[in-house]
Amino acid sequence: VIKIQGVRPDNVLFLIHEVFEGLVNESFFGVTYDIAFPCPDCLDARINEPWQFSSSLINRAIELKAPSIQCHRFFHVASV
How confident is the model over 25-45, as a mean pLDDT? Predict the structure, then answer.
C-alpha cells in the first residue's frame, strides 16, 4: 500500500508507475495490466471491498481537468 499526499501527488504517482511499468516490461513480455486505487471514502468507512478507480480513469480525469471522480459502488465523490 502506498499513500501519496501533497500538492501534486500525481507527479509522484507517475514516477512510481513508470518504474513499475519498466520492471513489468523487462520481466514479463506481453503482460498487460492496469493499476487501481481504492476510493478514499470507502476506506474511511472501512468498507471490506472498496471501489477501485482504474489509473486510466484517473489519468483521463486529469487530462480533462475534472475536479473529481465518483465511486460507482457508493457514489462517493473523490477529488482528483
Answer: 90
